[in-house]
Specification:
By secondary structure, the chain is α/β, with parallel strands linked by helices. The chain has twelve helices and twelve strands.
Length: 289
């Protein structure tokens, strides 16, 4: 059995649309997880026209995903940070402070869309930060970084139901440590910016945590916890997330780059991080945090 889940911005999901799709697909009774925001219904099989319907509904601001009913609630959250748990790319914010923002942002966009080698692109961008005072990191955290809506509820609700939460980023520990603590993650992994004399040296500690390291984190943490990879929910937006998104039992592309969406079965373009709770069958009234 499967479950079709429809999610839209609060107040915009029309019951008539849900009923129409349920009838077209021969689904079970509709269950509203959040009034006018999220609804689901059971399906015997994955509809053959899912991708066509998804494109049609995406155009009107509705995400539709089909998930397996068995093992739907996951016991581990593995999350990317930049443009996923937070709304910015940390390296782009640092680059703005260094006066090279436009150049670095262009490289970041291409790297996240899979057009550039992640490790090489990160090395090139970090080199442009050489000489930036270390204190700027805290300034950026305080004034430029904002959390993705729904993130605190996502982590709190999964942890309240026995899940483990790990933040795994191709960004920097100077940011993940702060974000992980604020949102309630159990652990965090990221790259380390090297410093000299109170300024950034323009280099990052080796080996660089990229796509392969995120998969390694999934393997190591799930094994340590005694979990099967099917019990993991992974979320990210960039090409370096594709490995872990493909391996996890539930891999969700959140507001992802086009090349990433094309390779992911589960996509959220209109909801926020609370959509990951709806995909697991949590009603809004059961959210924690």
């Amino acid at each position: 059995m499967h479950v079709a889940v429809l999610i839209a911005k609060p107040g915009t999901l029309e019951p008539a649309l849900v009923d129409s799709l349920r009838n077209a697909w021969g689904g079970g009774d509709a269950l509203w997880l959040s009034p006018d925001e999220a609804a689901e219904f059971a399906l015997a099989t994955v509809p053959g026209n899912l991708e066509d319907v998804r494109s049609e509904l995406d155009a009107v601001g509705v995400d539709v995903n089909v998930v397996a009913q068995a093992g739907r609630r996951k016991q581990m959250l593995l999350a990317d940070m930049d443009s996923t748990m937070i709304q910015q790319e940390c390296i782009d914010e640092l680059a703005d402070e260094a006066g090279v923002g436009a150049h670095v942002k262009a490289i970041t966009a291409r790297a996240m869309n899979g057009e550039l080698d992640f490790e090489g692109a990160l090395t090139e961008r970090v080199a442009l930060l050489r000489g930036l005072p270390v204190g700027v990191i805290q300034q950026v955290l305080d004034s430029r970084i904002t959390f993705m809506p729904g993130g605190r509820e996502l982590v709190a609700t999964m942890r309240a139901n026995g899940a483990y939460a790990a933040l795994v980023s191709g960004g920097f520990t100077a940011f993940t440590a702060s974000v992980a603590a604020a949102l309630g993650f159990d652990e965090n992994r990221a790259n380390t910016l090297l410093t000299e004399g109170g300024t950034l040296s323009g280099a990052v500690a080796q080996p660089i945590l990229g796509r392969a390291a995120k998969v390694q984190a999934l393997e190591e943490i799930s094994a340590r916890l005694g979990l099967d990879e099917t019990q993991v929910l992974a979320v990210g937006d960039g090409a370096n997330d594709l490995g872990m998104l493909g391996r996890a039992g539930m891999g969700v592309a959140l507001h992802a780059k086009p090349s990433v969406q094309a390779q992911c079965a589960l996509r959220v373009n209109h909801g926020d991080l609370s959509a990951l709770l709806f995909l697991q069958g949590y009603a809004r009234g059961a959210f924690a945090g």
